[in-house]
Specification:
Layout lengths: L1 H23 L7 H4 L10 H8 L4 E6 L2 E10 L17 E10 L2 E11 L10 H4 L3
Antiparallel strand pairs: 1-2, 2-3, 3-4
Length: 132
């Protein structure tokens, strides 16, 4: 009986370790909060930006000769990296860098973070009903 329990425990530990190892390196990790400090407004060129951060997640034309580049990253929950666990653990927030590129230079750059709790006020209807 104890050998069977030992084998089941060992199998369970090995299976969990293997899923953790396989789930860790599915895509490169970006640290946007520190990456934004590498960008100097008016000094960093378009090519340097591509070298530092890679291709943006989205681009849009905002004016003549001006583009907005957005680098977006969901902040993963602690156990979200496990395979199939993303269904059960919600991301605590999202971060992004918004870069305004004019010609060959970075014109402006800002970092934004939005927590999942930032929108919790939508579920609070008491203040709307008290005015009636």
């Amino acid at each position: 009986m104890s050998i069977s329990l030992y084998r089941c425990s060992l199998f369970l530990v090995l299976a969990l370790s293997l899923t953790q190892i396989l789930g860790c390196h599915t895509r490169p990790v970006r640290h946007l909060v520190s990456d934004v400090s590498l960008i100097q407004k008016g000094e960093t060129s378009r090519q340097e930006l591509l070298t530092l951060l890679g291709e943006p997640d989205s681009r849009s034309q905002v004016a003549d000769n001006q583009e907005e580049w957005i680098y977006h990253e969901q902040s993963p929950a602690r156990l979200q990296s496990l395979p199939y666990a993303d269904r059960f653990f919600k991301s605590p927030g999202a971060q992004r860098i918004v870069v305004l590129v004019q010609g060959e230079q970075v014109l402006d750059c800002r970092y934004e973070y939005q927590s999942r709790q930032d929108a919790s006020w939508r579920n609070d209807f008491e203040w709307q009903q008290s005015g009636e």
